[in-house]
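Sample intake sheet
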Amino acid sequence: MEKWVHRILCILTMAFFLLVFLQEKTHFVEMKPLGGVVEEVLYPKFTMNEYADRTYQNNLENYSKQNFGFREWFIRFYNQYIWDFYGTTRARVSVGRDGWLYEPQYVEEFYQSRMYKYTEEPDVIKGNYRKEATRLYKLQEILKEFGVTLFVMIEPGKERVYPEHLPDGDKYTRPMGVKAVDYYPVLFDSLDVNYVNFSKYFVEQKGKVDYPLFPQTGTHWSNIAAAHSADSLFRYMEHIGKKNIHNISIGPAYYDKTRKPDDDLEQMMNLTREIPKVPNMYASVSTDNDSTAEKPKMIAIGDSFFWNFVSEIPMDSIFSDYQYWYYNSTIYFSPNYTSTSEIDLVTELLGTNFVMLSYCTAMIYDLGNSFISNALVHLCYSDRKINSVLDGIISNMKNDENWMASLVEKANSQGRELEDVMLGDAKYLLYNNPEAYFEELGEEGVPQVRNEDIYIKEIKSMIYASPQWLNDIKLKAEAWNVSLDSAVTRDAIWYYNQHKSE
């Protein structure tokens, strides 16, 4: 009998490993994908050099960890076990009271502020806020000249609206720092920067509305709260942009099964069972039938709160075009671009009607993610002048032996070309402190200097739209033996220089 038991156990064990192997190779059982961000690990290519220094073995081990059969099931079962027995999670999630979940940065923001991520000195961070708010005002006023309305939407934070469910903050021993979400509105008011403050409004509305402002197991404003906020936002945009925009109608609220992204933190935990939670509320959203309303263009730059708008609001019925520049990096909802590194920034900005910077309480410390200074520089100076400044910075690098040594070390450690590292560092220095390289940007008031290429592009458009003017330049192109566009550009530059003082 004992021999048969051993045989059966051996067969079952072999069958188990065979199933795991088959699942890894064929994926014959469809698995629910795990939540969270996973960086794909490719199967390593065998070389003797990498085998000798154990690089191949390490890469193969990392690949196996991510691709073994039934991996998703094993991870979910283990996560459920530690959640059920210990009330904790391996995900980047803070577990609060009553089963409420928070992202760690919001807990940190509540108990001490995230100022300490940047500096220990309150006066330093206040100076940084003032500098960025001043740049923002200058950018706002310059864009206004071209018919573009810039504004900030300060999003709420779950930690402020529902602090009673936060985990204990005993580990946060630093004194309370200066919070960006409190300091920026003061600066915006003094500088007359356009902004709408949903952070303050949500705290005021808690207890006055009959729907949850934040979901128990999600990190963003609830879908229904986002819909009501969008209604207020579009009316604010009508006011500051002096445009008649389609308004939205929000139907009666109703209880329903939790939808994305109202459970995004729970999804990151990768459990086998749902966490018991209070029901979530939803409402249908539609647009009005105003035949006189415009459909403007908008660029939204900011954090992930904007996804709730996309989930709940019929954006295509309100905007003729809208782009979402996620942390001023990845571009969503654009047919032409996927990254801000690919775009002509000035062309994109001057081709829209609204630019919205959208940041919540824990993320507003990086307001704009370098967009503000980058846009300010490019609206004021041509690519030729900017490249000249960058060349000067790179020249200083080459003349500094210690600087060059550090750049070479950086290039080697990151596996990048030295020239690429030098250019990247030069751009960082320029856009992190443009006032040090362009004197006009450091002066009080709105800079008067403008990127001449903006006007030259406009003049070129005028030329192409004028048959007589274009025909005259065709003759010049033949005489000069250059392309038509080169001749148009020459004439546009001449025309600009003749009329720029007018």
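Comment: The chain is about 50% helix and 10% strand. The chain has a mean pLDDT of 88.
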